[in-house]
Amino acid sequence: MTDLSRRSLLAATAAGGSLLTVAGAQGQPAAPAAQSPIRGKDGASILGPRNPAREAEDPFTLRPPRTDHGTMPNLKWSFADSHMRLEEGGWARQTTIRELPVSKAMAGVNMRLGAGVVREMHWHKEAEWAYMLKGRARITAVDAQGRTFADDVGEGDLWYFPSGIPHAIQGLSADGVDGCEFLLVFDDGGFSEDSTFLLTDWLAHTPKEILAKNFGLPESAFAGVPEKELYIFPGPTPGPLDADRMGGAGPVPEPFSHRMLAQAPLSLPGGTVRITDSSVFKASKTIAAALVELQPGAIRELHWHPNGDEWQFYIAGQGRMTVFGSESKARTFDYQAGDVGYVPFAMGHYIENTGTTPLSFLEMFRSPTYADISLRQWLALTPHALVAAHTHLSAADLNRLPGVKAPVLPG
Ligand code: MN
Ligand code: MN
């Protein structure tokens, strides 16, 4: 991104609802009346109703670069547009195939639990991968062999519960933070947070005499079972973690938690990358992830993934992604903290930090392993005469391309 376009984006941010300038596309100077969809001789002002605050969030939707073309599916959703399910002490909102129809492979949930507040004991068909955004939580689970798991997780930690494994989450009070907030990612876009199998929901829909037989207790013992699901509710004050390690048939062989942020990053001019897949987080058999931080102006290089769709969550900063979808199709989207991005299988893309602060985002894949193909590396490692015949790049320039992949490149 040029300094000019970075400056004008800054101005756009500062101007908020009364946006006066919009970033110039592809090195073109920012137009003075850039709030209009005008690019050189193309376009015209808007005469009808407008939503200036919304337009300011998506400058390259209002005025796309010349290189954008064709009809791409929508690849952006903001959690700000997701319904908030409010419960005592917490909330949940989701981005699934219902909000973002292209997202068939994965779905996401953003959840907040106050200190002591419980996401009720439950299970679901989909595997659950999670990234702790703020605060701390206690997570517990039991597997099919009666092996148990309990851990306390904090910012930058992950958990992964395989398909069908029962689990619960409880917010903790630590370091002055009231509970926690986290991102959940499920390995099916059709997932619904409102359709999980809840302990209390099952008990409420089982005859009391069956409960008595099943647990070997008198029917009267179940008089207090709630008549409807609890879902999110204030729970008992959690004790020390050791007391919640229940033993059973021993601990699960592959722990369901992982300290992602504590991994040593791949550090490059322009930013850092942490990759967490089943090679380092063994339990995480169906979700691979990367945590990327880009400095202002830096890009996540032009690349694609040979192993599936990409589900993105923007944690901080401002970014821009153009996705190339074959048949001359390409579209550019702007993202900010709290937004979800999506890249369908094999489509080429880059992500640029268009802000003045670090851009931090997560990439998730429904795959046991992380993989990407670097455009630059592909060209560097293909016979140069052949590449020159396609690109008309000089032999000298082609010789300058490094054969080593650099997922992040400086601005
Ligand atoms: Mn769950
Ligand atoms: Mn990618």
Give structural notes:
This protein has 411 residues and is mostly beta strands. The protein folds into 3 domains: 21-57, no CATH class; 78-258, Jelly Rolls (Sandwich), CATH 2.60.120.10; 260-409, Jelly Rolls. It contains 8 helices and 28 strands. It has helices at residues 3-15, 52-57, 59-62, 199-204, 208-215, 375-380, 384-391, 395-400, and strands at residues 38-39, 42-43, 76-78, 85-87, 90-95, 107-113, 117-123, 128-142, 148-153, 157-161, 167-174, 177-178, 180-186, 197-198, 232-234, 257-259, 266-268, 271-276, 288-294, 299-304, 310-316, 318-324, 330-336, 339-343, 348-353, 359-365, 373-374, 408-409. Strands 4, 5, 6, 7, 8, 9, 10, 11, 12, 13, 14, 15 and 16 form a 13-stranded antiparallel β-sheet that branches. Strands 3-24-21-26-19-18-17 form a 7-stranded antiparallel β-sheet, with no helix packed on it. A hairpin with a 2-residue loop joins strand 17 and strand 18. The protein is globular, with a radius of gyration of 24 Å. The termini are close together. Residues 1-24 and 29-34 have low confidence and may be disordered. The structure holds manganese (II) ion (MN) (2 copies).
Give me a quick take on this structure.
The chain has helices spanning 3-15, 52-57, 59-62, 199-204, 208-215, 375-380, 384-391, 395-400, and strands at 38-39, 42-43, 76-78, 85-87, 90-95, 107-113, 117-123, 128-142, 148-153, 157-161, 167-174, 177-178, 180-186, 197-198, 232-234, 257-259, 266-268, 271-276, 288-294, 299-304, 310-316, 318-324, 330-336, 339-343, 348-353, 359-365, 373-374, 408-409.
